[in-house]
Write a structure and sequence with these properties.
This protein is mostly beta strands. The chain has no helices and eleven strands. The chain starts with a strand and ends with a strand.
């Protein structure tokens, strides 16, 4: 069974930084996209950042220039470096992985709270 385990969330002051990590226990097939989503209270889950197997990245407009996604294919791990955090970044952050067979997997979510 594939499990994604997230870490790195927490409470930080506005302007501070956090680094999220998400490691897969195993993958039976090649992992294509690795993503981070977030869901704020009362809102829909939204895509924050995506990285392809070849390292191409894409970001939601509000986090461009502040967040950076990276991955380690050998460790089946994806990271999200979050700098200059704002109160509007408060949400539960979820990692997501899509393999080459079209199977997708989700992490359990990690809370990010930013105090103003």
């Amino acid at each position: 069974q594939v499990q994604l385990v997230e870490s790195g969330g927490g409470l930080v002051q506005a302007g501070g930084s956090l680094r999220l990590s998400c490691a897969a226990s195993r993958m039976w097939f090649r992992v294509n996209a690795m993503d981070w989503y977030r869901q704020a209270s009362g809102k829909q889950r939204e895509l924050v950042a995506r990285i392809t197997r070849h390292g191409n990245t894409d970001y939601e407009d509000s986090v461009k220039g502040r967040f950076s996604i990276s991955r380690d294919n050998a460790k089946i791990t994806v990271y999200l470096q979050m700098n200059s955090l704002k109160p509007e970044d408060i949400a539960v952050y979820y990692c997501h992985m899509l393999d080459s067979m079209g199977n997708d997997y989700w992490g359990q979510g990690t809370q990010v709270t930013v105090s103003s």
